[in-house]
Amino acid sequence: MKQGFRQSMAWLHTWTGLLLGWLLFAIFVTGTSAYFQEETTRWMTPEVRSVPVDPARGFQSATDWLQREAPGASEWSVYSAGKRAADLQLYWVNGPDVPADAPTEARLDGNGQKVEARETLGGWFLYRFHYDLHYINWYWARWIVGIAAMAMLVAILSGIVTHKKIFVDFFLLRFGKGQRSWLDAHNVSSVLFLPFILMITYTGLVSLATHYMPWGIAANYASEDKFFDAAFPWPAPGEKTGVAPLAPVAPLVGQAESEWGVAAGSIRILNPGDRTARVIVSSAPDAGMSVRPRSITFDGVTGKVVERRDPAGAATATEGTMIGIHAGRFASVLLRFLYFLSGIAGCVMVASGLILWTVKRRARLPDPERPHFGFRLVEKLNIAAIAGLPLAIAAYFLANRLLPLDIAGRSDREIGTMFIVWGAVAIWAIARPAGRAWIEGFAATGIAFAAIPVVNALTTDRSLVASLLARDWVFAGFDLAMLLLASVFGFAAFKVARRQKPGRRVRGADAHSRQEAAG
To answer: Which of 80, 104, 121, 443 has the most crowded Cβ, counting Cβ within 10 A?
Structure first.
C-alpha cells in the first residue's frame, strides 16, 4: 500500500474487474435474460399456444390425462413454471411391466391437450448457464462462478472507495469524448444502479452458500443426503394395498390455494388408484418472495389433510427470500422490466470497464501501433466477449427456427450452434485488426438479431404482424426486442466505423485513445 489507500483500492478495482471481467459479462448477460426465461421458452416453442391456465382446472385436466395414458404408474407429477407459463409439464414413473423405453413425460396446454413441441431447452439453458456454465462439471462451474462473484463484490466495494465524486457521477454522461466518455458510461451504469448490482452479487453468493461453505452441514448431519432429506423431504410411494378411486384433485388444489392465498405450482400423486394414494400440493415458485414452497399432503382417496409443511424457520426463510430476491420470480411486469434494465446496466458496467482498461493504456504505450502481447490479448478477448456472446445468443435463437424439427439431439445442437458461433467470433477477432473486428462483430450481431423476426415469420405462423393482430404480446414483444437489439448493435457498428475514418483522427496518443474508445 505504498501509494496510499485510495490508490491501492483503485489497483484492486482494476485488476479484479479485468481478470474475471469476461466471465462476469457472460454471467450478467445470460442472468439478465433469465428475467424473461418463460417468455423466451414460449417463443422457442411456438407449437404451444398461450392459453391462460386456471391452476385447479389445469391440474385436474392433467390428472385426467395421466389416468388415461399412464394408469399403472407408481407416481405422477404435474408442474407449472408459474403464472407466465403457457403449459404444464407432466412426469410419471412407469410400473415394472412397462418397457424401459416407454415415455415418462409429456406437455399439456391450458386446455389439457397434449402438445408436441420442438425439443429445446429455451430460456432455461441461458438461466442455468449463468451459474452452471456448460461443457464443464457443474460442481467446479459453481466454484468458478462463485470466485467471479466474489471478485465482483471486491471490485464494487473497492470502486466505491475509489470514487471521489460519487454523487456528481449520477449526472455526468458526456458523449464523443473518447476515454472520458467510457469512464462516464462506466460510472453512470455502476453508480446509478449500485444498489441492484450489490444486491444481485451478494444474493447470488448466498444462493449457493451451502456449496461454498458446506461445513455447517458437515457439523450437523452425517451426510449431505441427510441434510437434503431433512430440508427438502421427497416422500417415496409406499406399498400398494388395494385398488381405490382417486379423489378429484381440483378441490384439493383449491383448498390449498385458499389456505395459502397464493396459486399452486405443482402436484405429486403417489400410488394413484390405490388405497395408499397421497396427493401433495405445493405452492408456485413465483407465489411469494421466498422460493421455498409450502405444501399440503392429502389422502388420495378421502381427500383429508395428512400433513402441512411450511418451511418458515428463520434460516430457511432468509435463504429462500435471498434466492427469491435474486431470481425475481415474484416480480410484477413493471418490476420485472426494472430488474431487466438493471441487469442491462450491469452488462454495460462490466463491458465499459473492460474497454476502459485498453483505452487508458493504449495512450501510454511506447508504440501504440504495436502493443505488447498482454494488451493485444485483452483487446481480442474484449471483442470475443462483448461482440461475440450477443452474436452467439442470436445464433441460438436462429438455430431454434432453422434446425429440422425431427433431428436427434435437437436441443444440444441449438446449444452447440451458439458455442460454435462464439468460438468463430473469437478466432475472427484474433485474425483481424482490432478496429475492423469491432465493426464486423457489431455489424454481424445486428444483422443476426434483425434476421430473427424474419426467420420466425418464414418458419412459423406466428410472425410479428400476426402476433400484433392477435395481441400475442409475448411473441410480438420478443420480435420487437430482437429488432431493438439489432438497431443497437447496428448503431454501434456505424459509430465505430465513423470514428475510424482517417479524417477524424488526431495526432499523438489522443488519436489512439479516440480510436480505441470508438472500438
So the answer is: 80
